[in-house]
Amino acid sequence: MKAIIIGAGIGGISSAIALENKGITTQVFEAVKEMKPVGAAISIWPNGVKCLNALGLGEKIKAIGGNMRTMAYFDYRHGSPLTQFSMSPLVQRVGETPYPVVRAELQNMLIDHYGKSRIQFGKRLATIDQNREGVTVTFEDGTQAQGDFLIAADGTHSVARPYVLEKALPRRYAGYVNWNGLVAVDETIAPASQWTTYVGEGKRVSLMPVSHHRFYFFFDVPLPLGLAENRETLKENLKNYFAGWCPAVQTLIDTLDPSTTNRVEIHDIDPFDQFVKGRVALLGDAAHSTTPDIGQGGCAAIEDAVVLADILASHSLGIEDCLQRYQQRRTVRTRDLVLKARKRCDVTHAIDPQQTEAWYQELRSETGERILAGMCETIEGGPLG
């Protein structure tokens, strides 16, 4: 059995590894000529870590993961703590540790494990044809590939999605812009082993520890779509948006490097229930594009990979039957993740200012139990518990 995989991102390579672990041959094609990860870092929560463990990558993810022992929210203006608590109860309940990781390091880890020389770069998908025997794809350069089935892990701008759905779906602007990057740990900004977030005015500034004594940082600001902003005005823009915020936030803005800081207008796609058409299946962001507000986008793609491979290895009624079972397993789970992220997005970014203000007040009396319980519920909904 041979799988054609479109996309060498987190979902595509995770699925290639998962399928080959089950004895299924894979061939991976990537549109770009060189991988350049979008976004500086990513959260791999315990549901994602468990899936990586199942793929034989447990020690490798631990080696590149950050040490996130505590979590805290701070008042934006004075920098005073609203709540601060240990992540240990979460780890004990779900049975695994979360790891914030640099996206490029995660990507390289996966590609190195699979074998970079095996991936064909510069292969942009043009058309898909299938029959009862298999699938043929044609790339923009005129070359073709054939396999028994196709996994389309080609991201939020998926070329394969309109083929599967027989229509195009619009991306939905979530209402805010995110700036993100990496800086050296500075404990005047935040403790080295803490996920620290400053909140106020419907905005957010957050830092998470990643490998090699660095912070992954991000700024969120509710803004109109399409503003003419770039790296040349980045610090000036952030200084303006965060005027009056506490000294730690000002220090972070002064410290960051505009040339390596990303500016992203955040979108998602309304959840849909058709991931499969015959022998073609969508996976990762191609199937469930979400905002980053609960940090589950990458984890969901890795979950997809594990579930798909397990079904193909354990069922014998044919490929199309297996892909339908994959769809049944994943649509409910991923719809829940997309909508949870959208709900959290709206509260965090003051879509309803009164609701956001009520959340700020709740944080002042938060012991950690409520926040961690919500995280645990999301984590435990994964395929490995």
UniProtKB/TrEMBL annotation:
Domain (FAD-binding) ranges: 2-338
Annotated signal sequence range: none
Organism: Rosenbergiella gaditana
Keywords: FAD, Flavoprotein, Monooxygenase, NAD, Oxidoreductase, Purine metabolism
The family this protein is said to belong to: Belongs to the FAD-dependent urate hydroxylase family.
Origin organism lineage: Bacteria, Pseudomonadati, Pseudomonadota, Gammaproteobacteria, Enterobacterales
Catalytic activity: urate + NADH + O2 + H(+) = 5-hydroxyisourate + NAD(+) + H2O
Record's keyword annotation contains Acyltransferase: no
Cofactor(s) the record lists: FAD
EC number, as in UniProt: 1.14.13.113
This protein's name: FAD-dependent urate hydroxylase
